[in-house]
């Protein structure tokens, strides 16, 4: 079987070669550095398996064309799968999986953002650059005195909880499918989403983007939050109603916001757009605030995670063929 991997970056090349070497007999693989799109979909002809990352957006039309061209297995080599019409693929008999790379890189990044937001690091770093060493406006808060609400207790949310447990903060968690082992721990309490929103000083999002989670942080939720709340999002930009948070930053209802993701970030994040006119007004507006910290979707970007995404993504195709793929959707 031929497999084609799209969106190969230079930093993934070594892992790609290892993954290619490890393929079982009967499989061969090629790559394209481009994202998979309408423009190059014809190039999948002859490939039963494709491996894509988060930028190869596959709505129903592209899934259908891929199917017509012979694609039967789609391995998404990231955690998020909101960019692929998985339902349409499954209707056509295409097997689809995502990838479960280790959660530690993203979880550590989350804790870093929480601390940076609470300690006003963005404003402090800005000031350092211009010889402003004043303290005004930099008064921080100590995590051990606060309640952190973790929305989503899958692998990443659970690892965030593990990482936070050393700080002495109170932890509350929400998940529509609570984890039985976690529920037994006495250092955290599962609560419903309204209670979490109303009782947390820090809210961190670790749920996938689905119809039920789109805009989970909206004006209604913000109205229930504690004053001076800190919101952290390393999951998907669309979990947050950006207009609502802009208003809450302007009215100072939200104390700090740290986001590694942004709505409509595809085409911007992971590209050098320095000399271009960008059309994401909300991003340009929000990033001016001293208490809004934006990073360019890099929580996953560690040596270990990058290798795992490529190696597990490629290995997932034969695993789906064998029926042994643990992350099949
Ligand atoms: C994911 O794994 O879902 C991510 O968000 C990382 C991706 C940008 C490569």
Q: What is the total number of structural domains?
A: 2
- As laid out across the biggest beta sheet, the strand order is 8-7-6-9-10-11-12
Instruction: Output the CATH homologous superfamily of the largest domain.
Output: NAD(P)-binding Rossmann-like Domain
User: Could you report the average pLDDT, rounded to the nearest whole number?
Assistant: 97
Distinct small-molecule ligands in the complex: 2-OXO-4-methylpentanoic acid
Q: Estimate the global geometry from the Cα principal axes.
A: globular
The count of helical stretches stands at: 12
- Which CATH-level-2 architecture of the largest domain? 3-Layer(aba) Sandwich
Helix content: 25-40%
Major β-sheet profile: 7 strands, parallel
Indicate the structural class: alpha/beta
CATH class of the largest domain: Alpha Beta
Can you describe what's shown?
The protein is built from twelve helices and twelve strands. The two termini are 21 Å apart. It has two domains: 2-101 and 303-322, NAD(P)-binding Rossmann-like Domain (Rossmann fold); 104-294, NAD(P)-binding Rossmann-like Domain (Rossmann fold), CATH 3.40.50.720. The radius of gyration is 21 Å and the shape is globular. It is 33% helix and 16% strand. Helix 1 (13-21) packs parallel to helix 12. The strands form two sheets. It has a seven-stranded parallel β-sheet, with helices on both faces. With 329 residues, it is of the alpha/beta class. Bound molecules: 2-OXO-4-methylpentanoic acid. 2-OXO-4-methylpentanoic acid binds at residues 53-54, 78-80, 297, 300.
